[in-house]
Amino acid sequence: RRDLAGTFLARPAMTRTGTAVRVQVNIADPSDVDGIDIATCDGVGLMRTEFLFGRTLPDEETQYRAYRKVLEWAGEKPVTIRTVDAGGDKPVPGFTVEEGNPFLGLRGIRLSLARPQVFRVQIRALLRAAVHGSLKVMFPMIAIVEEYRQAAAMFAEEQATLAARGIAHEMPPLGIMVEVPSVAIVPEAFTEAAFFSIGSNDLTQYVMAAARDNAAVAHLNSVRHPAVLRLVAAVAAFGQRQGIPVSLCGDAGGDPASIPSLLEAGLRDLSVAPAQLAMAKAAIADVSV
Ligand code: PEP
Ligand code: MG
Question: What's the pTM?
Answer without folding.
Answer: 0.97
